[in-house]
Design goal:
Helices cover 6% and strands 41% of the residues. The protein has one helix at 68-72, and strands at 7-9, 19-22, 29-34, 37-43, 55-57, 60-61, 65-67, 75-79. The strands form two sheets. The protein has a five-stranded mixed beta sheet. It has a three-stranded antiparallel beta sheet with strand order 1-2-7. It starts with 6 loop residues before the first strand and ends with a strand.
């Protein structure tokens, strides 16, 4: 299920601190409720031969790797 929303656990859930690699999801917009916080994932990409995309977290450029804490704190991930 996480792959469909664009989140992949790169450590296989075996590391002490989990990091997740994020890719554009299958859906245009996803909202995940985490306790009282929301994680919103927006896919504004278009298919291209090189599959390049830019990742933004809460409006700022971000590499496509996220810590568990970042995802758990909610916010907005946008792919362009």
């Amino acid at each position: 299920m996480l792959a469909a929303v664009g989140i992949f656990d790169v450590s296989g859930n075996c590391a002490r601190t989990n990091n997740y690699y994020a890719i554009p999801p299958l859906f245009k917009k996803i909202i995940i409720q985490i306790n009282s916080k929301k994680l919103v994932i927006i896919n504004n990409t278009r298919f291209s031969k090189d599959n390049k995309f830019a990742t933004y977290y809460n409006g700022e450029s971000h590499n496509p790797s996220f810590s568990f804490d970042e995802l758990n704190n909610g916010g907005e991930i946008v792919y362009k």
